[in-house]
Amino acid sequence: MSTGYITLRVFSAGRAMPVPKAQVRIVDLRIALDQTITTDAYGNADKIKVYAPEKEISMNPQDTQPPYETYNIEVARDGYIPTIINNVPVFAGETSLQPVAMIPAPEGEQYASLVDNYDVPPGGLSIKGERFAGAGGEQHAVHMTRPVYIPETIRVHLGPPGSGDKTVRVPFADYVKNAASTEIYPTWPKQALNANILAIISFALNRIYTGYYPAKGYDYDITADPMSDPFYVDGRNVYVSVSDIVDEVFNEFIKRMGFAEPLLAAYCNGITARCEGLSQWGTLTLANQGKSAEEILKYYYGNVQTNESGDIRGIGKDYPGTPVRLGDVGENVMALQRALDEIGRTYTNIPDIPRINGNYDAYTQDAARAFQRQFNLSPDGIAGKKTWYQIQFVHAAYRKLEELSRQRAEITLPGSPPDTTLMEGDRGVNVRILKFLLFATSVFYSSVLPVAANNVFDAETTASVKSFQKTYALPETGTADPATWDALMNVYKGIDSQAGTVLDLILLPPGAGIETDTGAHTATPQLRPVQGARANTDLERVKTAMKMKDDSYPFDPMGGGRMGMRYSADIPDYMPVSASEEGTMRQGEEIDPFDPPAQYGPVARQYFEPEMQKDAGQSGGFDDMTGMTRPGTQFYPPAPMRMPGMPAGGMTGRGGGMTGETMPGPGAYAAPPGSAFGMRETAPPGGEPDTDAEGTAAYECPAPPRVSPPFPGRVLKIGSKEREVEMMQEFLSYIALSLMRYKKITNELKVIVNDGIYGIDTTDAVIRFQNRYEMPVNGVIDAPTWAKIVEVYNSPFE
């Protein structure tokens, strides 16, 4: 029996926000399949193997049996509009990637029954009759000489030209992936797929270049109607084999010699449909004969050439032309670092890059690898064309979320909708509120047009209002009447309910650079945003220092394979690293988070003091190439911090803080007396500490005294600064550490600094706690969350 695969990526706000813990149900009643899975913290669902017909069927145009099996997919998450995709086709040996763009559910009972329904019809190869008859797209050899550009999005009308169907904005590469997955079979040879994809790209770019539909008075670039344009199916799946090629060639097109515009490259299946252009089934035959994509295209279109556009709209920086990798330096690296850094604010499985300095170091490589794993790219840590542009596209979506965050902080919304009707030509505060609501909606709804932030009701505003009214089946008047106001307010309340915490976190200001004097070493680290940019030097030093390397850690309190909080230290500041046989220490090797070690590590490289061991021919410090700490490295830890279970004096060790200790040599294992986080070393009398299977010293965690502090009567949230915040931070950290130690649960909860300031760290810790204990996720400590934290804190973990 042949099989294929289904995998899902569930997100919101145009891929800027993952949707965790969505319930995904996959059904095929014909083969009695009914399976439910849950997305992880980053919106990904496990790949599922499912039945599919034999691949050979997809290679024979005369075979009447569909070469795919269809499945129905249902996706639900509290606070979001449920999504149903019917008849998702899966081919043998192919991975079907189902993107699910979930929309926050509007507030109000009248919207409780909303469902986003999509249906995938048979594809382009099943079409009969003549395609693209009278499609236009005349060639202009003389007066149309402007350069070809790749749009950020393409406006797709979901019906025939002139119909009343809605229009959606689709990222251009995603449009091509969708249309190609609809038009042809993903099982075909790569050269056949490549030729068909280039034809689709050229056709779509011709529509944009010539302004074909806008010239006819329409407010879209192309239609989804297969008799007029490439066959686009809103909400459908795409195939990894198709997606990989599109990522390589999305900015390439074919054109005739002597002509400026992309070719209107007509095509049809060549069996049941005829056209003046490419035969889709014919490309399969030619590819099987060993023809390249270029040869196939010339066979059908004559003397054409393939061009590449370097003008890609809506992104931060175009691909430099060659892969960016470990060891590279310069402006391109810095642009990549900034993009990865910001994407990591919503995709926290992407590890920190401590210094945005244009140096493609091991941290940057780790971040690139994590991004590649998240977005289904080969995780080689190299930013080639595919990776570069995927980063830019996701970052473009993030920037819209960031703009929404900024506008949200600048505007005060009324408690109820304004009682005035607004129309084109009006000005004032209410117009500004209207445009904010429209922009917020456009970030989450591809069918709503974005607007600029000002107080003028212009033609752009009218078009946006109409697009919103069409989306919610309201009369398309273009005026903000009471019904439109009411719907906009309810939609925004739903958005704020689901995305408000993320928008708060995005807006936190970055920290300022600081001087840190640690013995002989002084550094001015580039700091990341940290809980309102506090000025406490010791705390900032810890937060900047604790940036952990991804692949070498056996446990991970953050989840997703990364160690260390994005905005602050979230693990103990004194960490042991056992010596390897070669006498070097790999950062993070054989770590026990509860060991009070003699040395401080691992830390960011700016806190390593390279000591040249001239007499021994060795140097200390951090090796950029190997990720190893070298013997003789001097460590300068920050001032002691108070953590759960510790006395108010903080953590102490040798020398009252262990400043300037030297890492032990090969085979050394040194642990000072005393306890860190209430931990104590377990060792037989006169012997060495017990070890686990990896040779790491074992420690036990004394239970804290049982306490039941009452809820203070006010919700603790971002900005709160009080004793109760510090108490909850201690409780959350203790729970995380205990789960690590006794339950071996290392990727759900996190340890945070108990500084009494409710910032991004605490919010993230609370969200993780609420997720684990199946509570409403809002990132604040309300009465139910307070009670649950206290309950779990007092529970036995052993």
Task: Please provide a written account of the structure.
The chain is an alpha+beta fold. The chain is 28% helix and 14% strand. The strands form 11 sheets. Strands 1, 2, 5, 8 and 14 form a 5-stranded mixed beta sheet that branches. Helix 2 crosses helix 3 (240-249), helix 2 crosses helix 5 and helix 13 packs across helix 15.
Please supply descriptive tags for the structure shown above.
798 residues, alpha+beta, 5-stranded mixed beta sheet, globular
Please sum up the structure shown.
The protein is of the alpha+beta class.
Low-confidence segments:
139-143, 510-702
- The structure class reads alpha+beta
If helices are DSSP runs of H or I spanning 4 or more residues, what is the number of helices?
15
What is the strand tally?
31
SSE blueprint:
Elements: E1 3-12, E2 17-18, E3 23-28, E4 33-38, E5 48-51, E6 69-76, E7 83-90, E8 95-101, E9 116-119, E10 129-130, E11 153-157, E12 167-171, H1 172-183, H2 190-210, E13 222-223, E14 238-239, H3 240-249, E15 252-256, E16 267-268, E17 273-274, E18 278-279, H4 280-288, H5 293-301, E19 304-308, H6 331-343, H7 362-374, H8 385-410, H9 429-444, H10 459-471, H11 482-507, E20 516-518, E21 521-523, H12 537-545, E22 585-586, E23 608-609, E24 612-613, E25 618-619, E26 621-623, E27 628-630, E28 634-635, E29 661-662, E30 680-681, E31 699-700, H13 723-743, H14 760-772, H15 783-793
Parallel strand pairs: 1-8, 7-9, 10-17, 11-13, 16-18
Antiparallel strand pairs: 1-2, 1-5, 3-4, 3-6, 6-7, 8-14, 11-12, 15-19, 20-21, 22-27, 23-28, 24-25, 26-27, 28-29, 30-31
Helix pairs in contact: 1-2, 1-3, 2-3, 2-4, 2-5, 6-8, 8-9, 8-11, 9-11, 13-15
